[in-house]
Amino acid sequence: MQSRVALVTGAGSGIGAGIAQELATQGHRVAVLDRTPETATATADQIKASGGTALAVHADVSDPAQVTQAVAEVTASLGPVGILVNNAGFAKDNNVLDMPLDDWDAVVNTHLRGSFLMLKATAPAMRETGWGRIVNISSISALGDDERVNYVAAKSGLEGFTRAAALDLAQHGITVNAVGPGVVHTKMTTVSAARAGRTLEQHLEAQAKTIPVGRIGTPHDIARAVLFFAAEDADFVTGQVIYVSGGPHG
């Protein structure tokens, strides 16, 4: 695999950190972007300690000026971005009737607007080289989930964005695909457990029982799917969504 510059958003922890680390093991130069500088630095330091090349970048992906500055910083330090992974996101769950507008905007702006802004900032350089890989991190929640209408709307919108952008960019050698994680043990799992009124251990046990393979996912599981879409010879696969969820389940 040719060494590329890979930019992963929300890479300070959880799935994003796992993806960044896995890309680094493949020889890519990784830009670790997060809105929390300390976590971005921690992930970048882990990559460098393992012999990889990484750069910590601080930005809020929903802010156009910050996105532009971040991509310029990455380009100056590592080179033009060839692989973009739009992973940044978080949850602010509530019943649709009780959902504050601010919580709707915060989640949709990060997941959906942020992915759009990151694509707009990186795809021109990919077009110039005639090669690019964009992978958006969706969720099985895109198929529907209770009391998280903002998150579901953002993720289902991200899947539509993936299919449409794939058509627009295919002629330039740029693929756009999405990976939809199922239940993955990250910091967000603790939030989900509290929302369900369970301890973390109770929540993980209950969730595992709904998954056909019988276990909770890991960031590594998601990262492997990202690597498939980011591969040099994956140029005939675009506009696709793959759910990495241990089998179909509700």
From TrEMBL:
Annotated ranges, domain Ketoreductase: 4-182
SMART domains hit by this protein: PKS_KR
SUPFAM superfamilies: NAD(P)-binding Rossmann-fold domains
Top-level taxonomic group: Bacteria
NCBIfam families, A to Z: PRK12826.1-2
Membership in a protein family: Belongs to the short-chain dehydrogenases/reductases (SDR) family.
Protein name: SDR family NAD(P)-dependent oxidoreductase
